[in-house]
């Protein structure tokens, strides 16, 4: 019994079961004749079964329509409160709902909705305090951009410490990466004596952006490799980090190729960026197959469609033709990868070293 209790305590620390639930679950299992050795044996049998891992990327925050219904209520209620009341009234409402729905009822999808609502509230309040109106501001060449983004890792980090929501932790990390990027740019500007360093040195900005994107992806992989079977909170954190790292990699590489911010705006013309987009997205798809993360595939589809649009337009096709050919090409790519995900992944993973294969999710 002590061994079973230690297993449940460890599951509680890992976030697999709610906090302070191990004692009740222990008595529940013991009353029904469950023993520690039986639980361990069942877990080992499942770990060695290939059928249990047909899909290791099932989002844990989608559990049923009950959560969906409550989430709709959260969105509507907070939107109404935001519209008729003060913007500062939204924050206590988020905290009250988090206490009820997250801490007590442990509802996953409402936790995601409340985290997104808190992020939007943080952005609106930060913009209002800096500029006097609740509008999202851009990252400028002064301290306003730094002060604006600094609020995100602080607020969302505290929210994660209170409620242990993986999305809050991932957003706090992403915010910290943006803050670190701005601090480095300001340090370089101070050392060079150029207050507009980020504007006058676009190449340096692009390389720093690529470094930050790679760092975010590396951090996501650290969480992923801790849980290759995708059963703990580490997998959820990695999911959200990958969701942010994939577009960050794509856009930073586009910046480095010479497009700069807004590099996708000219993809319908003949330029070197069109093949860069195609090659980059294909590389992200390959990475997504290897690590079994479809986020890497889906994040680049819009950019891939824009690039294919430019390629087909270069061929002087009719307007209706190249638009529909672009849609058809993207749709075929999605269907091929979607329906053949597991066979394609097995074919790719088998070509990796045995040591790396053991660290990745089963293929």
How is this fold's topology laid out?
Layout: H1 2-13, H2 22-31, H3 36-47, H4 65-84, H5 90-104, H6 108-131, H7 143-163, H8 166-192, H9 197-200, H10 202-226, H11 233-256, H12 273-291, H13 295-298, H14 301-314, H15 319-339, H16 341-349, H17 354-359
Report on the architecture of this protein.
- It is built from 17 helices and no strands.
- It is mostly helical.
Descriptors:
about 375 residues, mainly alpha, single chain, 17 helices
Q: Quick gist of this model?
A:
The chain is mostly helical and 363 residues long. Helices cover 74% and strands 0% of the residues.
Q: Ends: how far apart?
A: 35 Å
Q: SSE order, as H and E?
A: HHHHHHHHHHHHHHHHH
Shape descriptor: globular
Number of helices: 17
Strand content bin: under 5%
Radius of gyration: 24 Å
Oligomer: single chain
| Helical coverage, percent range | over 70%
Number of strands: 0
Low-pLDDT residue spans: 37-54, 135-141, 262-270
Instruction: Please summarize the sheet with the most strands.
Output: none
Structural class, from helix and strand content? mainly alpha
What is the average of the pLDDT values?
78
């Amino acid at each position: 019994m002590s061994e079973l209790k230690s297993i449940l305590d460890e599951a509680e620390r890992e976030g697999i079961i709610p906090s302070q639930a191990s004692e009740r679950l222990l008595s529940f299992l013991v009353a029904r004749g469950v023993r520690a050795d039986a639980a361990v044996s069942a877990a080992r049998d499942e770990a060695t079964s290939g059928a249990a891992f047909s899909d290791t990327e099932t989002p844990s925050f989608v559990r049923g329509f009950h959560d969906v219904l409550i989430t709709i209520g959260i969105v509507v209620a907070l939107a109404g409160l935001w519209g008729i009341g003060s913007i500062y009234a939204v924050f206590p409402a988020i905290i009250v709902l988090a206490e009820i729905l997250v801490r007590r009822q442990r509802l996953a999808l409402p936790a995601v909705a409340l985290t997104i609502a808190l992020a939007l509230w943080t952005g609106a309040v930060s913009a209002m305090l800096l500029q006097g109106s609740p509008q999202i501001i851009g990252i400028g060449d002064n301290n306003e951009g730094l002060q604006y983004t600094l609020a995100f890792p602080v607020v969302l980090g505290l929210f994660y410490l209170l409620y242990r929501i993986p999305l809050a932790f991932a957003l706090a990390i992403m915010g910290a990466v943006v803050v670190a990027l701005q601090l480095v740019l300001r340090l370089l500007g101070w050392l060079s004596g150029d207050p507009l360093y980020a504007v006058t040195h676009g190449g340096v900005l692009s390389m720093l952006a690529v470094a930050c994107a790679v760092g975010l992806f590396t951090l996501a992989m650290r969480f992923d490799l801790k849980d290759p079977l995708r059963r703990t909170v580490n997998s959820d954190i990695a999911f959200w980090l990958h969701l942010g790292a994939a577009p960050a990699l794509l856009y930073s590489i586009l910046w480095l190729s010479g497009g700069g911010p807004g590099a996708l705006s000219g993809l319908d013309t003949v330029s070197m960026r069109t093949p860069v987009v195609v090659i980059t997205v294909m590389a992200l798809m390959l990475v997504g197959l290897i690590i079994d993360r479809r986020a890497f595939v889906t994040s680049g589809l819009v950019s891939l469609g824009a690039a294919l649009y430019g390629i087909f337009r270069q061929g002087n096709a009719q307007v209706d033709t190249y638009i529909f050919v672009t849609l058809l090409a993207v749709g075929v790519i999605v269907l091929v990868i979607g329906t053949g995900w597991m066979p394609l992944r097995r074919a790719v993973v088998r070509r990796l070293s045995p040591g790396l294969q053991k660290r990745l999710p089963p293929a």
